[in-house]
Design brief:
Number of helices of chain B: 2
Oligomer: heterodimer
Largest sheet of chain B: none
Largest interface: A-B, 37 and 32 residues
Distance between the termini of chain A: 54 Å
Strand content of chain A: 5-15%
Distance between the termini of chain B: 60 Å
Radius of gyration of chain A: 30 Å
Structural class of chain A: alpha+beta
Number of helices of chain A: 16
Number of strands of chain A: 9
Shape of chain B: elongated
Strand content of chain B: under 5%
Chain lengths: ~525, ~60
């Protein structure tokens, strides 16, 4: 293979070569390691989460970009220089597109964007897919070793699209800031959005430096936008529990800081060490600030949680021993009178006494529901895990509520896809959770039908209940599974709604290492609840 | 009773999208690394101006 006509040695794994100045490895490996650690942690914590997947994809594309760029610095092979120079274009575009997608999803209350919007964004890739292999992408190999390759108009097109993406993200941030009512969501979108804007702007500025041929070494600063992005995402995780990641983020930041400091050991050139130390100081300061602030907030939060837990435990004690006990005593009095223990009951008084007994029973059920939900929210429920047939649990729950559905004139369909439904679970708690979901569907469906189905795959069993009921607004969906949370119009349709039913369902699903999901196209369009349970 | 699953257009879209990008990368690899079909400029003077470049590209 013919080498560049430069005095360059060969490169191991295409990237390790004496041709490359030490600070280039520093500027590439540090952001690469910090981003990949964060990407993997976020993805492993919740592989099904859309934002988790997108963030993971961004970090993967960033890793690819960094590797490709190192090949351009290290490889003496002209073929590889041209190939990686050309291939860096779709990788860079994918990184920008995914970043835009991430901010859009956050601004959309963590819901996916529409199919049409996806197709529209993908159209930006058409020229790249069609012209990537032509000289319009990379014109050819430059005569100078430092220059590498001569870029074609397709790369200028990419820079222009990148600027459009940055402006679009700024617009989304502005719109979200202006329109969002929920302060937490607004702050979360701003945090992720600003981190993304700094990351992408640093990258684009690096490209601008390259176009105007200012010292190419300055281009390396563009990669340090990634640790800043990592810091913003980490802050968002600590502050808002974004991406459903817990305090493991602090560990990621600690590893990143260690990598940063360790990398200084490998710098031998004293002229370079000033620059590297300066950059390290900036990154350590930002990440350190994020860490300290996050830990402070965690401590404050824990203290307030402990207080709140004590109050809640007291409340549950009062409800359990005082209110439920008193109601039970009253129920016994009504039952004994109606049973004739104190002599014959006059016929005129019987309906009134029966109504009293029914009301007391409803009240006891109501208190029990709150206690169950509160216990679930405090992880106070006990589970007896054993091998059970999930289809049997569903069949029992459906049978127990079929009469209620029919009495409301609703069609209740139950479909089982043939398969094996054996799972490890607690039959009683799962039955209660399914009973809750089906009962909810009946309560919130005035007319039409309720379709229940279960299916089984190698990895999981899926329970789905779809109704033609009142549906859910975006606001309902965000508060549905929270303690005391219920739909805006919930009490108009179900006066006995406690706001604890779905907390209990979620808690049971999570105790089985599963999840519960609520879908609805909005008010009046019905709703669908899906439970995934691993096998 | 097994129900027919509806076509997942989003999945098809992603397959098509990433498929076309990966195909372009493979085509570029074949053209550049296997066929070595690219220009090597020996001097700065050889590098065409944008006008000359377009003229040359369109006449190919």
């Amino acid at each position: 293979m013919e080498n560049l006509s430069c005095d360059w040695g060969s490169a191991f794994f295409l990237i390790f070569s004496s041709n490359v100045p030490e600070f280039i490895y520093y500027s590439h490996f540090l952001p690469l390691v910090s981003s990949l650690i964060l990407g993997f942690v976020v993805f492993i914590n919740n592989p099904r989460g859309l934002t988790n997947r997108i963030l993971f994809f961004i970090t993967l594309m960033f890793a690819c970009w960094t590797y490709f760029d190192l090949v351009l610095w290290a490889s003496p092979s002209p073929e590889y220089v041209i190939f990686f120079w050309a291939s860096i274009v779709p990788v860079e575009m994918l990184m920008y597109t995914a970043s835009f997608y991430l901010v859009s999803v956050f601004a959309n209350n963590q819901n996916d964007i529409s199919f049409k919007e996806k197709v529209f964004i993908a159209c930006a890739f058409v020229p790249i897919v069609l012209l990537m292999h032509t000289p319009l992408n990379v014109q050819g190999l430059a005569p100078s070793c430092d220059q590498g390759a001569i870029e074609g108009p397709l790369i200028q097109y990419m820079y222009a699209v990148e600027v459009v993406f940055i402006v679009a993200i700024l617009y989304i941030l502005f719109r979200s800031f202006k329109n969002s009512i929920d302060r937490t969501q607004r702050a979360q979108v701003l945090g992720i959005g600003l981190g993304t804007v700094i990351f992408l702007t640093a990258f684009t500025l690096g490209n601008v430096i390259l176009i105007f041929s200012i010292n190419p070494a300055y281009e390396q600063y563009k990669l340090f936008g990634m640790p800043v992005f990592v810091a913003f995402v980490a802050y968002s995780i600590l502050r808002f529990k974004s991406f459903n990641v817990k305090l493991i983020t602090a560990q990621v930041l600690s590893v990143t800081l260690s990598v940063l400091i360790l990398s200084l050991v490998f710098i031998e050139n004293l002229n370079v060490i000033h620059i590297v130390t300066g950059i390290t100081f900036c990154v350590v300061s930002i990440l350190g600030y994020v860490l300290v602030r996050g830990v402070k907030k965690e401590i404050a939060l824990r203290e307030s949680l402990e207080l709140s837990n004590t109050n809640q435990t007291n409340l549950i004690y009062v409800m359990n021993h005082q209110i439920k006990g008193r109601l039970g005593n009253i129920k016994n009095v009504f039952a004994e009178i109606l049973g004739g223990d104190y002599g014959a009951v006059p016929q005129d008084a019987r309906p009134l006494l029966q109504k009293g007994l029914d009301e007391i029973e409803t009240g006891i059920g109501y208190v029990q529901n709150i206690l169950k939900g509160a216990s679930a929210a405090n992880s106070g429920l006990q589970y007896k895990m054993e091998s059970i047939d999930f289809s049997e649990v569903v069949t029992d729950a459906v049978s127990s509520l079929r009469a209620k559905a029919l009495s409301k004139g609703l069609n209740l369909h139950y479909t089982t896809v043939p398969g094996i439904y054996t799972i490890q679970g607690d039959k009683v708690q799962l039955g209660e959770a399914l009973h809750n979901l089906i009962d909810n569907s009946i309560n919130y469906t005035l007319e039409g039908s309720i379709d229940i189905s279960i299916e089984s795959t190698k990895k999981e069993v899926v329970f789905k209940i779809k109704d033609t009921g009142i549906g859910l607004s975006e606001k309902d969906k965000s508060s549905l599974f929270k303690t005391g949370g219920r739909g805006e119009e919930s009490l108009s349709y179900n006066v006995n709604s406690t706001g604890y039913g779905l907390v209990f369902v979620k808690s049971v699903a999570e105790a089985h290492k599963g999840s519960v999901l609520a879908l609805s196209e909005g008010r009046g369009h019905g709703s669908t609840f899906i439970i995934h349970l691993p096998r | 009773m097994k129900k027919n699953k509806p076509i997942n257009y989003t999945f098809l879209f992603f397959v098509f999208f990433f498929g076309s990008i990966i195909s372009s990368v493979i085509l570029t690899y074949y053209k550049v690394v296997v066929l070595k079909d690219f220009v090597t400029y020996k001097t700065e003077e050889e590098i065409p101006s944008p006008g000359e470049f377009y003229k040359k590209f369109l006449s190919r």
